[in-house]
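Submission checklist for the structure archive. All mandatory fields must be present; incomplete records are returned to the submitter.

[x] Identifier: Protoporphyrinogen IX oxidase
[x] Organism: Aphanothece hegewaldii CCALA 016
[x] Residue count: 193
[x] Sequence attached
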Amino acid sequence: MAYYWFKAFHLIGVVVWFAGLFYLVRLFVYHAEAEEQPEPARSILKNQYEIMEKRLYNIITTPGMLVTVAMAIGLISTEPEILKSGWLHIKLGFVVLLLGYHHFCARIMKKLAKNECKWTGQQFRALNEAPTVLLVIIVMLAVFKNQLPLDLTTWVIFALVVAMAASIQLYAKKRRKDKEKLLELSEETAPQA
């Protein structure tokens, strides 16, 4: 029975952890883009995003990570022979990358708070795709184990990465064009001195 409890809370931890990681980097996008705003909006927005980032990281994301890892250890303790499985070693390697990403986000958060981060909103949008790719790989390994269809999986992951990168670029291009149109309209409607 312990196995099912560990598994249930492991899955809950994964959902919470990933929700936090996805939203955290989205906040980084807004934080970086707040730099483009005039004062006092810039300071107000950056202060608000800093508070939101810290709360999200400390109250949701990190506890989700801790529950995920603790329950994974519990799962392994109920079936220690699983440690001999090759697929699990690969999965754990990707989990280590995800843990590194988690802690990298903490470093970025600190740099943003000190106004030392030079990343753009566009770069943060690209960074936000990393946990998606890791999630797909980790779930595929957990579901298929040693029967992972590597040829299909490789192409699906590659297609996902290309699609995400393309959509990021298209969205950025659209935003730039919208901003240019808005500037043109404001210049046209501004009273002449």
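[x] Structure attached
Curator remark: The mean pLDDT is 90. The chain has one domain: 2-148.
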